Amino acid sequence: MLAAQTRIETLLIVRHGEQALLTLIIPIALLIGMSTIHIGDLPDPRVNSVMPRILALAVMSTAFTGQAIALGFDRRYGVLKRLSATALPRWTLISGRVLATLLVVALQAVVLSATALLLGWSPALTGLLPGVGLLILGTLAFGAAGVLVGGALRPEIVLALANAIWFVLLLAGGLALPADDLPGPLAVIAGFLPSGALAEALDAVMVHSALPGAQPILVLLAWGVACGATALRTTRLT
């Protein structure tokens, strides 16, 4: 049952046009543009510094924005209510969504990595395995935030709010520009946002071959736990 549910959820994500835009087209376009156009003071090859931020953006797009919007409209059309009335256990429904999101993030990572390699990307090989762990942690943290937004509000509000939050986290989280290039207080705030924390941690392991540090890990854990705990109390099936 879990395998079947995961397959269905994955296909629904991959086949959805807006999801494809969020998960692949926008990240690939930004990866190519930010690696070839000289915006900000980055060492050559620029793709080495850009790639961790684009990976963080891809995780945010899939696990937060995509899941929030999908959950909001699933509630509107009674999908969750009908599934809860079947023999499918609730843990299977939840686990299927989580696994599907992780599979899509893995697909994003592969496609983005292939594109980055063509642009001259040379990651620190010792940071690849820790990078996988960070991608999983980031997916779970953003996924919890997506459930929080998509599980309690009307779908029209979810659609607008999820996209607005996506833009805020893109700009204020140091994804469009490095955190050091952000003006004044934004440079400090970026490290305490989940997008900035994930980008910082990925940059440490993949570019500098160093440990990610305690702060970004704790920030991701705090956001994940806080959003998950709140979502448990506020999420409705309809």
UniProtKB/TrEMBL annotation:
It is found in: Membrane. Signal peptide: none annotated. It is a multi-pass membrane protein. The chain crosses the membrane at residues 20-39, 51-73, 94-121, 127-150, 157-177, 213-232. Keywords: Antibiotic resistance, Membrane, Transmembrane, Transmembrane helix. Residues 49-232 form the ABC-2 type transporter transmembrane domain. This is ABC transporter permease. It comes from Saccharopolyspora endophytica. The lineage of its organism: Bacteria, Bacillati, Actinomycetota, Actinomycetes, Pseudonocardiales.
